[in-house]
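Data availability (excerpt). The following record was deposited with the supplementary files.
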Amino acid sequence: MLETALLLLAILTLTIQCAALLQLNRGRLLIKTLADAASVQHLSGPEVSVVIPARNEERHLAQALESVLRQDYEAFEVIVVDDRSEDGTPAILQRLRKEYTSLKVVRVADLPSGWLGKTHALHQGAAVATGEYLLFADADVVMQPQALRFTINHMLRNGLDHLVVGPQVRPGSFLVNAMLVTFAINFLLVLQPWRAADPRSKKSIGSGAFSLMKTEAYQKVGTMAALRLAVVDDLKLGSLIKSHGFRQEFVAGQGLIAIEWYRTVGEMVDGLTKNVFAIFDFSLWKIVRAFLGFAALNLWPLFAIFLTEDLARAVNLILVVLQGGLYVTGARYLRLSPLSGLAFPIAQMIHACILWRSTIVTLKNGGVRWRETFYSLSELKSS
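Predicted structure:
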């Protein structure tokens, strides 16, 4: 009886995995690459206001910000919101402001109650923006000179209200790269960003790294004031824009827009601990459901190879081989070593640990601590 049940579970899991592989392959073909999509490349057009929140960003800020200021698009301004920085960020901004007239700096001295630091910084930057288009970008995003030109022309040619660009992630340590492959595949499976362009689909997309939108659309959805305490503000903003009927699309930014994800596993764990439970709306039931699905599809087959026999073992072995092929393909797509994909069993286990670490730490602390500021769970849930 048990052997039959394990065989049926293996067959079911294999069926679901095959369906997921087909869905990912279809999605990969539907996602455009910005460098290939932007066939019309006018240097001039509507003004774009680039808003970059920065809190203690001295490690990346100079290189990233200079890459933005050197865009070959003619009509743009850059607004950096110095959000209570206590490191070398203000000095970097002061130096660059002397060199670039297109740079504006907004200093936030105190964080008002009822706001997250980043949402407040974006709100302050957008409030002084003059452009017809708004670009929200992170302070560690490095852009090639033609990046802004390509994105604004792609929006204009396709009649879009919101364009999200997935950045190319610079390689880190071996284990960080393995986790990146796992994160990217789960990101694609869960969010299905290629469906954001379909007005009939409820799927939406957002990104803190590069999110370009019409200022009119941003204002009509209520600005960042509608997302004061949204931990995953980028996804929530994308959802708001899509729900208001605006046209949205996701494209890949390989070769044009790049970020460093995390340098170490410790940084990665800390960063994802803040976000993961929030992605599931701080719902324990949603976390349990997500974990059970993840464990059944990804973790159980690894153990089942040793715990089952005969046909069930063979089916689970096929499943693990398929997973290995998927992760190696994902590594190549991200321009990482295929060996990063082969480390998927370790990466999946770390991924599951982060899922529960985020939940337990948030519940134990009664909230989220990020960038030296604590936000209680009660106020986050009520937002």
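Summary of structural features: Residues 2-30 form the longest helix (29 residues).
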